[in-house]
Amino acid sequence: MASIVAVTRLALTQFRNYDGLRLDTDGRPVVLTGPNGAGKTNLLEALSFLAPGRGLRRASLAEVTRRPADASPDERGGWAVSARLATPKAGVPVTLGTGLERDEGSGTARRVVRIDGRPAKSQTALGAWLAVIWLTPQMDRLFIEGPGERRRFLDRLVFALQPEHARQLSEFESVLRERGRLLKEERDGGRPADPVWLDALEEKLAANGVAIAAARRDLVARLAATVGEVADAPFPTPLVAIAGSMEEELAGAPALAAEESYRQRLKSGRRRDAAAGMTLDGPHRSDLMVSHAGKRRPAADCSTGEQKALLIALTLAHARLLAAERGSAPILLLDEIAAHLDRTRREALFDAVIALNAQAWLTGTDAAWFEALRDRAQHFSVQDGRIEGKL
Ligand SMILES: Nc1ncnc2c1ncn2[C@@H]1O[C@H](COP(=O)(O)OP(=O)(O)O)[C@@H](O)[C@H]1O
Ligand SMILES: [Mg+2]
Question: Is the CB of 137 under 6 A from ligand 1?
C-alpha cells in the first residue's frame, strides 16, 4: 500500500476569518463540523494553497487576508499558511509555507513559498512534496457550465501528477496574449505586426501547446485505466475524453507533426484571429468530456445527483492514480460532500477514503453524518474562526 503523506500541524495567520490557528493532526482523515460561516471551507482553502495555483476559491491573494471590519483590500497586510508534513521522502518531516508578503518599502505584495523555511523559486516546488485535490459545492455545475471550468479542472488533474504542466500553461497563455496584442494593434491601424516576431511567438505556442495537449492525453489515458480497474460502486463509472484540436491530432500523429501543423494553422489564421480578437484554435479551447458509462449518457444530461456521483468517482480514481504514481495518496479536500449523499453512498465514500490511505479533510454542518467514521477519523468542531475542540 502507498505510504501516507499527511499534515501533522497546520498554522494559519491572518487567513480569512482566522486570526491565528494552530491545529495538530495525525494521519487519519479530519472531519470539521460547525455552523454556516464558521470557517470550514476557509480551512480547506488554506490547505489548497499548499499546492501550486490559486487555491480552491481561485481567490485573489489580497482577498484572502483577514479583513478588519472596514479596511479595503489594498490596505490589508499579508497572510500565511504553514503545514508540517509527515512524509516518506527522506523519512523526516518537512514544513511547507506559503502566503502573501507585503514589502513595506515598496508597498508591493507577492506570493511566497518556503520549504523548511527556505524560499523556493516558484510555487511548482510545492508539487514535489504534496498533491492536494478537492471537491467543492461550486463544482456541482461543472458539467453544465462552459468549457473553461472543465478545462481548468482537467489541468488541475494533470498538474497534481506533473507540476511542470502549470508552467507550460502559464507560458502558453502569456505568449498567446502577446500574439493577440500584436494582431490587435495592427488591426486597429497601429504598427504592422512584425512577421518575424509573430513567427517566433507561434513557434513557442506550438511547442508549449503540444506539451500541454500531450500531458492532458496522458492523464486521461491513465485515468481511464484506473477507472477500468476498480469500479467505485455504488458510484457510477465515469468515461473521460478530451475534445480539442491538438489533443485529437495527437491521437493520429507524432508530436513533431502536430506541432508543425499547429504552427502553420496559427500562421495562416492570423487575419482570422485578428478579426475575431482572439486565437480561435489551440489547447486553450479544449474541453473535458465526461459521460456516465452505465447509462451511456453525457454527464450534462444526467441528474444533479448523478453528476455529483460522477465527480466523486472521478476524484477517487484520480486520487488512486496519484497514489500509484507518486507513491502516496494526495490530501483530499471534500467540502460539504456528505450532505448530498444518502447513507449508503456516504459510507461507501468513507470506506473508499480509508482504503486510499489518504488524509482527507471533510466538512459538514452536522456531526451525525460522520458517525460511520468514528475513530477511523479525528473530529473537530469549528466555531467563528476557531477550533473549539476535539469531538
Ligand atoms: N478575508 C476575510 N476576512 C475575514 N473574514 C472573511 C474573509 N473572507 C471570508 N470571511 C468570512 O468567513 C466566513 C465564511 O467562512 P467559510 O469557511 O466559508 O464558512 P463555512 O464554515 O460555512 O464553510 C464568512 O463569515 C465570511 O464573511
Ligand atoms: Mg463552507
Answer: no
Has residue 88 been placed in a domain?
A: yes
Atom of ligand 1 nearest to the CA of 36: 22
Give the span between the Cα atoms of 312 and 335, in whole angstroms. Answer: 12
CA dist 94 and 379 (Å) reads 24
Widest CA span in the chain: 69
pTM of the complete model: 0.93
Residue span of the structural domain in which 185 resides = 144-301
Same domain? 155 vs 295: yes
Q: How many domains would you assign to the chain?
A: 2
Evaluate whether residue 306 is within a structural domain: no
Ligand closest to the CA atom of residue 37: 1
* Residue 6 one-letter amino acid: A
Q: What is the pLDDT of residues 136-193, one digit of tens each?
A: 999 999 999 999 999 999 999 998 999 889 889 999 999 999 999 999 999 999 899 9
Write the CATH number for 278.
Answer: 1.20.1050.90
Strand partners, 292: 238, 297
